[in-house]
Amino acid sequence: EMFVNAVSRANKLNRLIHTEKKIAEKGYTIPPPNRPAGNYVGATRVGNMIYLSGHLPWKLGNEYKGPEHLITGKVGKDLTTEEAYEAAKSVALCLIGTLKDEVGDLDKVKIVKLFGIVNCTDGFSEQPKVVNGASDLLVGVFGENGKHARSAIGSNALPLNVPVEIEMIAQVLE
């Protein structure tokens, strides 16, 4: 019985996620939290749920330093699906920055849902492939706690001509 308890404790320890370490190991830096450009907040907490406003793609290392540092363009015209996928990864990192500011310990977070909007041409139909950039990054750093429900839709325009905007709902695990 002691052996079973020791194995159970070891398994629990092995399941611990060290999210910030994983982010660093992948060569990323968590940006500062989102600074809203209007009359809203970057995140609202209701109980153990956190609702994050739509975040935009910034050139890594230049988050929130002015619109000239945004990744811009219409997917299917100015950007390829692959380039927009990379932009969605940038959005995921910005969402993580806001989430960290709200929660503190990212190891206590479960990603519940993403809502991704892609600025694309009329005939473009690869919105899910674009938003996969954010989903893949989140699962890559949060593991099981990064698996989420998701929507990915197309739009004829987004603020400041960004290729993708993503909202997130997360749960704080107590």
Question: Briefly, what is this?
Answer:
The protein is of the alpha+beta class and 174 residues long.
What does this protein look like?
This protein has helices spanning 2-15, 19-25, 81-103, 127-142; strands spanning 43-46, 49-55, 109-119, 149-155, 164-172. It is an alpha+beta fold and 174 residues long. Strands 1-2-5-3-4 form a 5-stranded mixed sheet, with helices on one face. The protein is globular, with a radius of gyration of 17 Å.
Mean of the pLDDT scores? 90
Give the amount of beta strand, in percent: 15-25%
Q: Total number of β-strand segments?
A: 5
User: From N to C, what is the helix and strand string?
Assistant: HHEEHEHEE
Low-confidence stretches: 10-15
Largest sheet: 5 strands, mixed
What is the fold's blueprint, element by element?
Elements: H1 2-15, H2 19-25, E1 43-46, E2 49-55, H3 81-103, E3 109-119, H4 127-142, E4 149-155, E5 164-172
Parallel strand pairs: 3-4
Antiparallel strand pairs: 1-2, 2-5, 3-5
